[in-house]
Amino acid sequence: MPTNNMTRLDPNSQAASRGLSDLSIRNLFIIPTIAFLIIFNIFPLLYSLGYSFTDFRASTNAPAKFVGLQNYRDLLNDPFIWKNFSITAKYVLISVTGQVVVGFGLAMLLNRTIPAKGLITTLLLLPMMLSMAVVGLFWKLLYDPNFGIINYFLGLGKFEWLADPDMALWAIAIVDIWMWSPFVMLLSLAGLSAVPKHLYEAAEIDRAGNIYTFFRITLPLVAPILMIAIIFRTMEAFKTFDLAYVLSSQPTTELIAIRLYKMAFQEWQTGMSSAFAYIVLIMVVAITNIYVKYLNKVKAR
Amino acid sequence: MAQIDMRNVQKFFGANQVLKDLDLTIEDGEFVVMLGQSGGGKTTALRAIAGLETVTSGQILIDGVEMQDKKAADRDIAFVFQSFSLYPHMTVRENISFPLRAVRMGSADREKAVNEVAEVLQITEHLDNKPSALSGGDMQRVAIGRALVRRPKALLMDEPLGVLDAKLREQMRAEIKRLHIARGSTSVYVTHDQVEAMSLADRIVILHDGVLQQVGAPEEVYLHPTNAFVAKFVGSPVMNIHEAQFSGVNGHSSVHIGGAGTGFHFPEQLINHVRNTGQAVSLGVRPEAVLLSHEPQEGYFPAQTSNIEPLGSHDIVDVLVGETVLRARTESGYIAREGQQVFVNIDPAQAHFFDGATGLNLRGAN
User: Nearest CB to A205: which of B72, B83, B87?
Assistant: First the structure.
């Protein structure tokens, strides 16, 4: 890095009087971060990559045996793993779509002058400030077939939300939507309020109706920031663990994160689960890349 | 093409009244410029015509139909914003065709209309660019193109040249005038620049503090301002307005300004109506009506010059009269240096008297 591009240290400053050069101050800030990243991110990443080619089990003292690509071959040929993937895909689709619809809708409602707007916004943000496990536990109470308030209000009698194999995934997605719609709302609100008012006036003069204005002006201009919200939520939904784990243990709600957890820490197939984790990582990176490509396209115009 | 009527229009923002008893008729095909300081109510009046602003009371009629409660979209009026308000995510072609697409016009007709407008405005080569790639002048051409493409009843422009640089402004001014003559559309144009107003308008409407001050052709507003505000606002350099005293009788009447011992001779009939009112009166005289001479002449009295502004085609010279300064317009180089002595007079025929309290132009019987 060319150091001559850096801001020079004021020769009269306290730091300079202590004998610190620009370079040493730069190192002071950067080295701890680099060290942290190497110890906690890069090292485990590479170490698990090594494990993914072995039959290592962390529960025994048996030495790891190199098996090549056998783990990957087994995993990708396992129909149950593919089942986990399709459950996860369905969950991501339901959950993210729900969050975008609800969150963007709330943002549209809030993007006007209404009384107590600040208070309403703050209250709406509360769900995403709670802990995942806590949210899971109390929604379990809300969903309870015997005394749950949801069945009471919807008049569904003893409908078993979480025990019903078809409904359980939807029930988890609903909780996720409840919890994370405010996040999409917050970003959408920022995007909406950045659309200049005079563009709406221009559209009105140009005789565009409300729906036409929404799809031709509002949505395209909010799209980049909405895209960022979608990227974040997709990545999060893809790796959902705690919410689903706390709420339900149906085979129909076994997301890849849960399968991975079971494989790694209940069945102790450390090598196999490392390979699994790598497959998931590659998928998340690939999906994110598609979004980022699209985001750049949207931003370019 | 349409006639626009504003009848007794009032507009309040909270307790603040920004339009007071506004009555105005804009004829079919006319180019009307609303002129005034910022905060004078001219933009509010324009937005009220467009339907972007509601009025508190009064009527706005377009072609005789009451429009004050209709939405902007139902008024069939085009509006050019000061900030252009181009849609940043659309190409120039999409921007111009937006008003046509919004009402579901067929693509063949649309294409034809867009190309025609682009040709008139000389922006054909930019049709596939985004607005962000254009210069300020071209952005404004696109904004005007978007306004004209659907042949609206009237074209409203809110300081459309406000953000352009001086040279481009002059060029675009000429283009707007050319377009108006070619299309004959009823146009209402808001500006604070009196040069723009004078050069574009069929009639100028001067607004100050929400009150209509004067409506008239440019030369009428310039030569016969109804009050001191209009007199000062129209014309550059600004009209000299100074408190006046009167002396003498019987054909030797003089008007004194700035406490000077010697006054300017005025014929009786020009000042009889103002000299004996007992009220404070101000004398207003434009720089071109201040006469300078190197030689002593009948009616001229000696004075010192101070500041000289050489403007190329002419000079503006400050002349000290008593304790005040009269700005005079002379041919360039007439006064060689500051401090030089000259003989000064004013042309009584071009002088105005304003009521010191109300600012109203006190017109004589003539």
Answer: B72
Q: A150: closest CA among A133, A134, A138, A166?
A: A138
pTM comes to 0.79
Any chain A CB within 8 A of the CB of B77?
yes
Per-residue pLDDT reduced to its tens digit, A246-262: 998 888 889 999 999 99
What is the per-residue pLDDT across A104-119, written as a single tens digit (0 to 9) for each? Answer: 999 999 998 889 999 9
Give the sign of the dihedral formed by CA B171, CA B173, CA B177, CA B182: positive
Domain carrying residue A17: 3-51
The closest alpha carbon to A184, from A288, A295, A105, A291, belongs to A105
Residues of A with CB below 8 A from B87's CB? 199, 202, 216-217
d(CA A152, CA A129): 27
- The residue ranking higher by pLDDT, A169 or A61, is A169
Q: Do B211 and B275 reside in the same domain of the chain?
A: no
Q: Are the Cβ atoms of A217 and B79 closer than 8 angstroms?
A: no
Classify residue A57: in a domain, yes or no: no
Task: Give the per-residue pLDDT at A163.
Answer: 87
Cβ–Cβ contact B104 with A under 8 A: no
Facing residue for B102 by CB, picked from A198, A201, A208: A208
Rounded Cα gap, residues B49 and A60, in angstroms? 84
| Shared domain check, A112 and A29 | no
Q: Is residue B235 in some structural domain?
A: no
CATH assignment at residue B50: 3.40.50.300
Residue A300 has pLDDT above 80, yes or no: no
B103 vs A contacts (CB less than 8 Å): 207
Tens digits of residue pLDDT in A117-140: 999 999 999 999 999 889 999 999
Q: What is the C-alpha separation between A95 and A178, in angstroms, rounded? A: 10
According to the model, what pLDDT value does residue B36 have? Answer: 92
The interface pTM score, or ipTM, of the predicted complex is: 0.82
Whether residue A93 sits in one domain with residue A35: no
Structural domains of chain A, count = 2
Assign A7 a pLDDT band (cuts: 50, 70, 90): low
B204 and B132 in a common domain:
yes
My answer on whether A242 and A111 are in the same domain is yes
Same domain, B52 and B132: yes
Amino acid identity, position B103: V
Nearest-angstrom CA–CA distance, A288 and A277:
16
Cis peptide bond N-terminal to B302, omega within 30: no
Q: How many structural domains does chain B have?
A: 2
Q: Best residue in B49, B98, B151, B155 to probe A by mutation, most A CBs within 10 Å?
A: B98
Binding-face residues of A in 186-225 toward B, CB within 8 A = 196, 198-199, 201-209, 212, 216-217, 220-221
Q: What is the mean pLDDT of chain B?
A: 90
Residue among A199, A201, A207 whose CB faces B99 most closely: A207
The answer to whether B236 faces chain A, any CB pair under 8 Å, is no
User: Is residue B252 domain-shared with residue B216, that is, in the same domain?
Assistant: no
Q: Does B245 touch chain A (CB under 8 A)?
A: no
What does the pLDDT read at residue A6?
55
